[in-house]
Design brief:
It is globular, with a radius of gyration of 16 Å. The chain is mainly α. The model has no long low-confidence stretch (mean pLDDT 92). It has seven helices and no strands.
Length: 149
């Protein structure tokens, strides 16, 4: 099973990387198109959405005493309409939303006990706890696009 301490450290590292990127972006950078057709702004709003979903899922799971399944979600079905909505969010709002969503998700994970983490991992997916995985994938693409442009 994954150690809570290492999960917290990895999440913090990727959250700090996210915040650093957000602080370095110019408003025009949010409109840059990534290889998958999303803009940087859409990718950052996407990260925020999935952090918020993970946070809500964890809140609910904890409130229910670790009971109930971790419900899967068809990411492709969610991501397509989410990209359309995300494109309408102004860059400054995306910046605030992404930073706050990461902080919220990571805070919930950091407040768990190792026993809760072990139980949650039995019931669900590591990606809900280890937010660094999802953030890192998208941050890698964004940083590559910024360097190559």
């Amino acid at each position: 099973m994954a150690e809570l301490k290492s999960i917290i450290e990895e999440n913090a590292r990727e959250r700090e990387r996210l915040v650093s990127l957000l602080n370095a972006l110019r408003e025009s950078d949010y409109a840059r198109v990534l290889p998958n057709g999303w803009t940087i702004g859409v990718a950052l709003a996407h990260i925020a959405f999935w952090d918020l979903r993970a946070a809500r899922l964890l809140e609910k799971w904890i409130q229910e005493g670790g009971q109930g399944p971790v419900l899967p979600l068809d990411a492709d079905v969610v991501n397509a309409p989410l990209a359309v909505l995300s494109a309408a969010i102004p860059p400054k709002n995306i910046q605030k939303l992404a930073a706050e969503a990461a902080e919220k998700a990571d805070g919930l994970v950091a407040g768990m006990t190792q026993a809760q983490v072990d139980e949650f991992l039995k019931a669900g997916s590591e990606r809900f706890l280890l937010r660094a995985l999802h953030r890192g994938e998208h941050l890698d693409k964004i940083e590559k696009a910024l360097v190559n442009d």
